[in-house]
Amino acid sequence: MMALLELHQVTKAYDELKVVDGFDLKVHRGELRCLLGPNGAGKTTTIDLITGRQKLSGGQVSLDGTVISDWPEHMRVRAGLARKFQIPAVFKGLTVRQNLEAAFTRHLSPIRNMFVFRDRETQDRIDEVASLVNLKDRLRVRADELSHGETQWLEIGMVLTQNARILLMDEPTAGMTTQETHKTGEIFNGLKGTHTLLVVEHDMSFVRQIADRVTVMHMGRFLAEGTIQDIERNEEVQRVYLGQGGAGHHA
Ligand SMILES: Nc1ncnc2c1ncn2[C@@H]1O[C@H](COP(=O)(O)OP(=O)(O)OP(=O)(O)O)[C@@H](O)[C@H]1O
Ligand SMILES: [Mg+2]
Fold first, then answer.
1. Entry pTM
2. Ligand 1 centroid vs 100 CA: distance in angstroms?
3. Between the CA atoms of 142, 161, 203 and 43, what dihedral angle is there, to the nearest 10 degrees?
4. Ligand 1 atom having least distance to the Cα of 220
5. What is the DSSP code string of 220-234?
6. Strands 5-14 and 58-63: what pairing?
7. Cβ neighbours of residue 106 under 8 Å, at least 6 residues apart?
């Protein structure tokens, strides 16, 4: 089976320093992949190289068999790469429903846009997304009244309305309470199979809750891949990351 997202020998160098160094990764359709590694391992840089926020120094990124690594960022978004940013881009003065509507119509033509709010299909899709992200009962609430966790879920919902082919999430649970983190795990588990996700995370209990396969990077390189059990038993991973309280020990 062809991978939906494939990184081949992806490299990012600053002068002599390779912060991502010949990194390979394959993520298949419907998979939820976790990307782990100590601080400075190159995880965020890897996400930036996938989205086009940063330029590759070498290697290739393919989406569904098409090499996209020389495409500008906005074209990659159009091709179905979606990233959830740390700081949610929600409209504070609008309700949850209005935010989802805005996200939904952002990629439609202006003509289509004029009619879309009355469109039953659109409203159904918004309700569906709202339940996926645990905001079904909060649709009429203004975004500035949401908790930190709910705001993050709203942004995940806004990404979902775009029907992206793969969702890239860099530390989605940062700043969340334990309860919100657990709920986020349930949300992600509900997306498996129908959505493809690549999630960078340090919180190991969260990773245990959601992970199918886990890839570990260290100093820009591939270190290990497998089930969460494989990874937790892997001696090298324990030495560089899990062992020294690495996973919890976060900037
Ligand atoms: N503009 C830059 N110039 C030089 N080095 C950089 C630059 N940007 C990032 N780096 C280095 O690249 C390395 C990888 O950083 P990156 O942010 O990708 O790590 P990370 O795995 O996301 O870490 P964390 O878990 O702390 O978020 C780090 O050593 C960082 O200092
Ligand atoms: Mg990072």
1. 0.91
2. 33
3. -120
4. 14
5. TEEEEEE-HHHHHH-
6. antiparallel
7. 162
Which structural domains are found in the chain, ordered by start?
1-78+166-251 (3.40.50.300), 81-163 (3.40.50.300)
- Digit-coded pLDDT (tens) for 31-88: 999 999 999 999 999 999 999 999 999 999 999 999 999 999 999 988 999 988 656 6
Residue with CA closest to ligand 1 atom 8: 45
Q: Is the CB–ligand 1 distance for residue 111 below 6 Å?
A: no
Q: Which positions ≥6 away from 194 have C-beta within 8 Å?
A: 30
245, containing H or E segment: none
Cβ atoms of 4 and 196 within 8 Å: the answer is yes
- Residues 137-189 have pLDDT tens digits of 999 999 999 999 999 999 999 988 877 899 999 999 999 999 999 999 999 99
Question: What distance in angstroms lies between residue 170's CA and the mean position of ligand 1's atoms?
Answer: 13
Long-range CB contacts (within 8 A, 24+) of 161-164: 161/100, 161/103, 161/104, 161/125, 161/126, 161/129, 162/82, 162/103, 162/104, 162/106, 162/107, 163/80, 164/80, 164/81, 164/82
The verdict on the CB of residue 99 being under 6 Å from ligand 1 is no
Q: How many Å lie between the centroid of ligand 2 and the Cα of residue 97?
A: 31
pLDDT tens per residue across span 72-123 = 999 998 899 998 865 667 899 999 999 998 888 766 655 555 555 567 888 8
